[in-house]
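target protein:
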Amino acid sequence: MKKTWIKGLLACSLSALVLAGCGSTNGDGGDSSGAKKQKLVVSTWGFAEDFYNKEVYEPFEKAHNVDIVLETGNNADRLSKILQGSSDVDVIYLSDYYAQQGIEAGAFEKIDRSRLKNLDQIYDIAKAPNGEEYGPAYTVGQLGIAYDPKAAGMKIESWSDLWKPELKGKLTMPSITSTSGPMMVDAASKVAGSAEFNEDQAFERLTALNPSVVKYYSKTSEFVNMFTQGEAAAGPIMQMYVGDLQKAVPGIEFVTPKEGAYAIINTLNVVKGSKNKALAEEFIDWQLSQEVQEKAAKAKVDSPANKNVKLTAEEAKGVTYGPEVVEKLQKLDMGFVNSHLKTWTDRFNREVTR
């Protein structure tokens, strides 16, 4: 995997209001007191690098006299490297789905919540997405439906609308093994009319939907390409990607289904055996701060988990924002999902796409 050394370049004053302990560095890799710099290894996806370098990593490096080293890659590869013991990562960014896998494998330290001074500013759904002993979410987005009203030939308002005959041969749906795949199993159960999750009814509805599906996508780029090429007119997608989709296909609309959208949650955890646990927890707290969260939201990088973030109507476009939205999101039990995913994948391949 790619490793990138990131040097602190910003002046101390940039983060003095939020981060304590700023000091000027000397030419020997230490600060003015002669203290040697620590190294903090951060595992992340590597997207929005310019933003993260400037607004997240560099201010933290300067304030704490630390060099941040990045290991980048997708969820599965980065988690696998940690589980194999071939990584010196201190803190890791993961979706809640993969974070749950890491927890069940004993890959993370129990978090010291007393170090997370910004935790009280976070929405309840983000405080302990995988349990009180583990890391919080730093962003909460939503999975809804994007569609082209003209190409679809209808208005979409709910998950159940995806089953309407007007959309036959016009749908793209997430792969069962993608982050949002299990969410569609749950949505299918709701469409079937079940008050409680019913696996059999869910797969009956997914099987009925299959003739309408042109392709099951695994990457967001596939979703965008299908709309751009006119191969699809509707499908579930994370709101954060809708802006790129609208640039490619003007007129695309994003819908929060009336049954409820699903929470897309990304977390931060300290890796088991880290020699920098306290520093890693301070880094997590910095990521939760109103300063970082507000800048990320305004840059359309991440939807904020910090409820104190204030955005104008224009700044909030394309961002999952505000208690009236966030507090209504549905969150899957990732422990339940992980324990059933193999069965669901087998059933999906055997019954739905046979």
Notes: The beta strands are 3-6, 38-44, 66-72, 91-95, 137-147, 171-174, 213-217, 234-238, 253-255, 262-270. The longest helix spans residues 334-352. The two ends are 36 Å apart (CA to CA). The chain has a mean pLDDT of 90.
